[in-house]
Recover the amino acids of this structure.
């Protein structure tokens, strides 16, 4: 018997009137892509005289 949860197959989408491919095991594949390191926090230091810094008032 054909198991739809194990095998790739086609299904008919009546809303778009087309056949679509369904690949149940696609999410289970191992990741082989690039892994990016998180970026360092490069915000400038707080300046009490700067009107753009949070908490300071614009004059």
């Amino acid at each position: 018997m054909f198991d739809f949860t194990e095998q790739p197959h086609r299904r008919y989408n009546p809303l778009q009137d087309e056949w679509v491919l369904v690949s149940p095991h696609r999410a289970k594949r191992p990741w082989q892509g690039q892994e990016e390191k998180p970026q360092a926090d490069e915000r400038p230091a707080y300046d009490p005289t700067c009107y753009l810094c949070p908490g300071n008032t614009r004059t």
Notes: The mean pLDDT is 87. The CA atoms of residues 26 and 32 lie 13 Å apart.
